[in-house]
Amino acid sequence: MRFDNVLAVDPIDGEFVGSVETEENVITGIRRIPGKREFERILMPGFVDLHTHGSVGVDTLSMNGEALKKWENFLYAQGVTYFLPTTMSSTPSVILSAARVVRDYIKNKTLTSVGGIHYEGPYLSLKRKGAQNPELIRSIDLKEIEETLIESVKLITMAPELEGFSQAQELVQKRGITLSLGHTDATYEDMERAYNHGCHRITHFPNGMNTLHHRELGCVGAVLSLPFSVEMIMDGIHSLPGFVKLIFGIKGPKKIMIVTDTIDATAMPDGEYELGGQKIILKNGRPTLEDGTIAAAVLVFSGAVRNFREFAGCSLKELAMVSSLNSLNSIGIKDRGRISEGYRADLVLLDENLGVRETILNGKTVFQS
Amino acid sequence: MRFDNVLAVDPIDGEFVGSVETEENVITGIRRIPGKREFERILMPGFVDLHTHGSVGVDTLSMNGEALKKWENFLYAQGVTYFLPTTMSSTPSVILSAARVVRDYIKNKTLTSVGGIHYEGPYLSLKRKGAQNPELIRSIDLKEIEETLIESVKLITMAPELEGFSQAQELVQKRGITLSLGHTDATYEDMERAYNHGCHRITHFPNGMNTLHHRELGCVGAVLSLPFSVEMIMDGIHSLPGFVKLIFGIKGPKKIMIVTDTIDATAMPDGEYELGGQKIILKNGRPTLEDGTIAAAVLVFSGAVRNFREFAGCSLKELAMVSSLNSLNSIGIKDRGRISEGYRADLVLLDENLGVRETILNGKTVFQS
Question: With contact defined as beta carbons under 8 Å apart, do B218 and B205 qualify?
Fold first, then answer.
């Protein structure tokens, strides 16, 4: 494939106008045209969403392969070339069954954007449960964890203050699975200990955690003080635009990862839905539990990318970091997320308003508008 | 005067080993010795404390000139060459009377480190009163404010969410007096409005204000998002060392001003004291109200300087910013706070542990150990 007249945006080398060529599934040619400023399309690394519970009526905990395909196709139209279906807290057997659906799906496809599964829970703080079902939040049980860690598991969110966390961290990391801290009422010291033992990632910061205080730094203080990378839900509701801008100023473009945290109600009409065994009311595009607690989100990834650009006032180069590269790096994937020779051709072609026009996965067009 | 073999620390040009000469009250000669690393003493700009209610048994609201002299001498031994006695909330007549004591004191002295008075209140938030006496916190009354603004008033702390604040801000600033925001329950918008109208200063951040939340940025969010300069009480109690380090990382060395917020009990034995009409219990060096609320501080300025260096892990150049220049600049004083030719010779000579060995005010030694 060949993309002429594009503004190519690499998160490391920056932006340039020119051409990009791919052969098979790899980027093989980069041609910069110095001084040229006009272009037809923007070419960015394909978007990555590591925290999404569902969309278009599909939910991670209840989907089969066919439903997952429907979801995947929907995300192609959003420019997403890598994502992790994400579970809510549930019983080991239910989350294991979701992990098996994902495992079998990946096995049977030669081309897919499904990278694996993200377990958000069930080993979380009851006090910081957010929209997680309190009846399904569990104490750490090492044997149980071990049994649920099948090959499709890429990411697990846990609360570091729980009893047995250190052993759980060691177990998870030894298996090559990335640990993320979230839904937590930890102290600064709990967070720091997890950081020092190799966990450098935060789930939907700063939602579901205790806030900063000058006499107890807590979770937010630890996240701001230590070089954690943070997921942020970019709907302007979970975090105000001004908060996003503030965190962008503090953490910088290399430590933020856009996620959607969407649920099955995304891209669906207002009405009642289900999330981890709890009723969700979608009204005016805003999903809540019956008691009014914000429950996940319904924005689409390309909208999240546009929001971030507006909230943070960032460059396209920085946008390529927060929408793709940082997330990939957080789970150890190094072969994509760049527009540079030798990298995998996972790309998204956008118009000047960052509307998705074409999505390329592994060198093949999977969406075109 | 001539200081040989010193490590001179200028907040702009940085550190150098060499000699510094003064004539009359001005720095006239700077001689750097390139490559030389050994020195006998550290020479820094004299320390500045813009927020201190008292020390050695002296309290701003009740002192006479003789008591103020005792306080001033105590601060010379701390390396302080400029300070503002600071009132607590009180009636207009009581604070005005304190301002007159300060005015007459300055008039009658040819050499003094007393720069004027800082009114902390009485136009503050009842909800964020801290150790201010709630019975003496008042609504904004422009006529009353006007009557209390005599020539010795240099700084006023007010809460920006109060009715009439905008007019009060205009009134204060037109008189050339600096406004500082503190003891406030303001919204982000209140803070931003005050900033945009020329108030760029925060009183003892983040004590006495609402904290950061991702869906209401509030005072702390505004302070971190906008380029406010912040007083910080450097006792390790009002803000944890880790919080100081975090804020140093976020705001940088140009936006932090060390203050002590000391009360009359400073450098006094444990016992009972008074602050703005309320009983203070000093126990193990920690002052509280009878209900346990932290009430101001009892650390000494040179200790605060050492604390900051340790908490923030900063350079001496940065230490010279936060202990002197930033505070001076915040109230519009430009002729001192530097070790550079032509600047006023307000200096402090320190040993390698930052112990005060000599204090020079306007070219004259006022303390020597």
Answer: no
Residues A194, B132: Cα–Cα separation, whole Å: 40
Angstroms from B192 CA to nearest CA on chain A: 12
- A207 contacts in B (CB within 8 Å)? 214
Closest CA to A209 of A240, A188, A194: A188
* DSSP helix, strand, coil percent of chain A (3-state; round to 5): 30, 30, 40
Under an 8 A CB cutoff, do B249 and A217 touch? no
Contact in structure between B19 and B36 (CB atoms under 8 Å) = no
Within a 13 Å sphere around the CA of A210, how many CA atoms are in the beta-carbon half? 21
Say how far apart CA B138 and CA B257 lie, in whole Å. Answer: 27
Closest residue on chain B to A212 (Cα):
B212
In angstroms, the CA A296 to CA B300 distance is 50
For residue B285, pLDDT beyond 80:
no
Residues of chain A with CATH 3.20.20.140: 48-335
Mutate to test the interface with B, among A211, A214, A240 (most CBs of B within 10 A): A214
**Quick check: A239 and B214 CB within 8 A?**
yes
User: Which CATH number is A1-46+336-369 given?
Assistant: 2.30.40.10
Locate B168 and state its tokens.
Answer: 């009060």
Strands B153-158 and B117-120: parallel
Cβ contact A245–B225 (<8 Å): yes
The gap from C-alpha B135 to its chain's centroid, in whole angstroms, comes to 25
DSSP string of A175-229, one letter each residue = TT-EEEE-SB---HHHHHHHHHTT--EESSTTTTB---BTTB-HHHHHHHHS--E
Please tell me which of the candidates A221, A240, A246 has its beta carbon nearest to residue B243: A221
Within a 10 A sphere around the Cβ of A167, how many other Cβ atoms? 12
- Residue B293: the pLDDT is 86
Taking the CA of residue A225 and the nearest CA in chain B, the distance in Å comes to: 6
| Parts of chain B belonging to CATH 2.30.40.10 | 1-46+336-369
- Most confident among A59-73, A289-303, B213-227 (mean pLDDT): A59-73
Query: Strand pairing partners for B105?
Result: none
Question: What integer pLDDT is reported at residue A278 of this predicted model?
Answer: 84
Which ipTM value was assigned to this complex? 0.85
pTM of the model: 0.90
Enumerate chain B positions whose Cβ falls within 8 A of a Cβ in A: 188, 206-207, 211-217, 220-221, 224-225, 237-240, 242-243, 245-246, 249-250
| Nearest-CB residue to A242 (from B211, B221, B246) | B221
Which residue on chain B is closest to A232 by alpha carbon?
A: B214
CATH T-level topology, domain A48-335: TIM Barrel (3.20.20)
